[in-house]
Design goal:
The complex is a heterodimer of chains A (about 280) and B (about 325). Chain A has about 280 residues and is mostly helical. Chain A contains 11 helices and no strands. Chain A has 2 domains: about 60 residues; about 220 residues, Orthogonal Bundle (MetI-like fold), CATH 1.10.3720. Chain B is built from 8 helices and 9 strands. Chain B has a 6-stranded mixed beta sheet with strand order 5-6-7-3-8-9, with helices on both faces. The chains are: A mainly alpha (about 280), B alpha/beta (about 325). Chains A and B meet through helix 7, helix 8 and helix 11 of A and strand 5 and helix 3 of B.
């Protein structure tokens, strides 16, 4: 009798295992397909572009074929120009972003907590945010001259406002039940901030960081168009002025890749800092 | 805090609490010699005999609470409420929706200030990490960014208990609540019943004098609810804590409570204070006894008019 049940159990166990394995391999197949499609689409478009330029469906002097862009990239890399432009842009962006983000988070949380401060500053900040930050550049150039300060400050401005708004909103819309639970279990003052408000606001803060890094890249590129003699924005602008579209494409592609890489860094940091939110979404 | 002289009394020596909020010149002998024996009559009797010398853990006198909403409209949530909760007893608070039960609970727990009246908590001369009050909320109030073990240990962390000790104590409670295998999960990954068990563990771990529970089982399905009621009965009977439980369920109020306090429709005031004489230990079987049904009928008779009245309120 016991052997019969044991055998039945084993058979049932085998069936379950087979079903689980079938589900897993189906999921693996779907993932491989996703990955394949996400790579195949851009490759196909590049191939189409190459063919269109080679066959003169489009003007190859404007729509430089990908093969020529790759050659131009090789030249710019070996001459060191691309790397030094990338470094210049990255430096401006990271310094401005760090200062703006830190300031925005601190000021946003303070405004969220202190009603008089909010009354005094929040309408002012909202009005200032409505001005496109790039419009500040001429003023900053007048004040600071054509140096790094004006360009970095433009990035600071855009980052600051995005994070100030996100952090303020995170604190203002904080789940009152969690604040009450914190208070009920002895979190007061600085402890409430450190153990309840800050961790609870991190998801909104990371959303702000992701938005701000993209805007920061736009702004730093734009400042380099008009007020710089190095950087990726300068590379693109200068190539246009010299009519070297192949170099222009290299600059644009590098800016795009930089954007993807920086967003990736922030998403990775978010996974480390907010593991619970990732589990929630998955 | 001002305290009307007529309510002032001494606690006896055998009870841990003396001093702090309770002015007590000299130490009274165990038999309990009061500076003025007449004053004791002010205090309502306990529903159950707790000790030879009842000493209230919580005492609300003439508590009223007014809310003003965004439109400037004032609502009287509580009106002149007196409630005395003896040490070590379980008081169920029941009443129609919106009658101010939860407000009273929060006033008792000092999460909110009364608009008038006084709330008195016998604060023991507690050393270390024993916190005076713990809360259990209907929606659990668990922190989504902390895993299970750190949620349980949150109160200990706030009280400055070291990491190792608080994790050890938290694990012991998780084991007791059957949640140990989920210690590194996040609350989002747990079912409603598990979350409320977690929230109970968080409340009990800091060894509070008083536990205040705001409809802790209301969000659960009926079967999970029965299981957790048994958990609660067991936990309470083992711990001997002072508990105030707000509930909508007559069964729950009677099954768990030493007393059931009925509140009126808004503005809330106490209309009935009924001792529950059912023997302990209790379990779900208790609900099938004749005495239970009789008390339930009596309770419903007292509550029915109030519920009807509350339906006429906006």
């Amino acid at each position: 009798m016991t052997t019969v049940t044991a055998k039945a159990d084993r058979l049932a166990g085998d069936a379950v295992e087979a079903a689980v394995e079938a589900l897993r391999s189906a999921e693996r197949r779907r993932r491989r397909l996703d990955l394949g499609l996400s790579v195949a689409t851009p490759v196909a478009l590049l191939a189409l572009w190459q063919a269109a330029a080679d066959l003169h469906w489009v003007d190859p002097r404007v729509f430089t074929p990908p093969s020529d862009i790759a050659l131009a990239a090789g030249r710019l890399i070996s001459s060191g120009t691309l790397l030094s432009d990338l470094a210049a842009t990255l430096a401006r962006l990271s310094v401005g972003f760090s200062i703006g983000a830190a300031g925005g988070i601190v000021v946003g949380i303070l405004l969220g907590l202190a009603r008089p401060l909010r009354a005094a500053l929040s309408p002012l900040f909202t009005a200032l945010y409505a001005i496109p930050q790039i419009a500040l550049l001429p003023l900053l150039l007048v004040i600071f001259g054509v140096g790094e300060t004006a360009k970095v400050l433009t990035v600071v401005a855009v980052t600051f406002f995005v994070l100030e708004i996100n952090a303020l909103s995170a604190v203002r819309h904080f789940d009152p039940r969690l604040l009450e639970a914190g208070r009920a279990y002895g979190a007061t003052g600085a402890k409430m901030f450190r153990h309840v408000l800050l961790p609870g606001s991190l998801p909104a803060i990371f959303t702000g960081l992701r938005v701000a890094i993209a805007l920061g890249l736009v702004v730093v590129t734009a400042t380099e168009f008009v007020a710089s003699n190095n950087g990726l924005g300068f590379l693109v602008w200068n190539s246009w002025q010299l009519f070297e579209p192949d170099q222009m494409y290299v600059g644009m592609a590098t800016i795009a890749l930089l954007g993807v890489a920086l967003t990736g860094v922030i998403v990775a940091l978010e996974r480390l800092a907010v593991p619970w939110a990732r589990r929630r979404s998955s | 805090m001002s305290w009307p002289a007529r309510h002032r009394r001494c606690t006896g020596a055998p009870l841990r609490q003396s001093g702090s909020g309770w002015p007590c010149p000299g130490t009274a002998p165990a038999s309990g010699s009061y500076s003025n024996p007449v004053e004791i009559s002010v205090l309502p009797r306990a529903g159950q005999q707790v000790s030879s010398l009842p000493s209230p853990a919580l005492e609300a006198r003439g508590v009223s609470k007014v809310y003003v909403n965004h439109a400037g409209k004032a609502t009287l949530a509580l009106h002149d409420v007196d409630l005395v909760v003896e040490r070590g007893t379980f008081v169920s608070l029941i009443g129609p929706s919106g009658c101010g039960k939860s407000t009273l609970l929060r006033v008792l727990g000092v999460l909110e200030k009364p608009s008038s009246g006084t709330v008195r908590r016998a604060s023991a001369a507690t050393g270390g990490a024993s916190s005076p009050v713990s809360f259990v909320f209907q929606d659990y109030g668990l922190f989504p960014w902390l895993n299970v073990v750190d949620n349980v240990a949150f109160g200990l962390r706030m009280a400055g208990v070291g990491k190792r000790e608080r994790r050890e104590r938290a694990r012991a409670w998780l084991a007791r609540m059957g949640l140990l295998s989920f210690e590194s999960s996040y609350p989002e990954q747990l079912s409603g019943g598990m979350r409320q068990r977690l929230s109970l563990a968080r409340a009990f771990i800091s060894d509070p004098e008083v536990l205040l529970m705001d409809e802790p089982l209301a969000a659960l399905d009926a079967q999970t609810r029965m299981l957790l009621q048994e958990d609660l009965v067991r936990l309470w009977e083992e711990s001997g804590k002072t508990v105030v439980l707000v509930t909508h369920s007559l069964d729950e109020a009677l099954l768990l409570g030493d007393r059931v306090v009925v509140m009126s429709a808004r503005p809330g005031r106490v209309t009935l204070d009924m001792p529950v004489s059912l023997p302990r230990p209790r379990s779900t079987k208790t609900t099938t006894e004749v005495a239970f049904s009789q008390m339930k009928a009596e309770l419903w008779a007292a509550l029915r008019d109030e519920v009807e009245r509350s339906l006429e309120q906006p």
